[in-house]
Design brief:
The chain has helices at 2-9, 18-45, 58-84, 90-120, 127-130, 136-141. With 148 residues, it is mainly alpha-helical. The termini are far apart.
Amino acid sequence: MADLLTENAIHRTQPINWGAIWAGMFTFAAIWSIFGLLGMAIFVSNANPNAAAPVTGQNWGISAWSIILTTIAMYVAGRVTARLSMSPNRVDGAIHGMVMFGLSVVGTIIIVSVADAVMSGEQAYKPRYIAGTCSAGSLNLAGLGSWP
């Protein structure tokens, strides 16, 4: 009876496999960037240059595409991470996937902030970019439209 209680009370998890997490993050980055550019190209090709407002309504389509694309890319990258982690159980695979999710979110925020700084012509190391505030450039990059 004592052996049964000890066996159930101690659940050993394997150490984090950082190779699997980085592979999942790069999988997310590849899917997100390639299909993000494809979606942008599709939405931009629908613009009417002869109209008074050629891109009216484009920001809603790009925003929806960005949300759907991010969800799909995170799912595929999480599956890749869990598979490559060689986890003996689902809990360890889920932990690897959640670490990959956090690393991907932080990496995406940094990339969007740096791209915003480059597009607006400002320096990327200013504290306002690190604090999470952004200008209209990064909102356009994220597919959320621009401010008037």
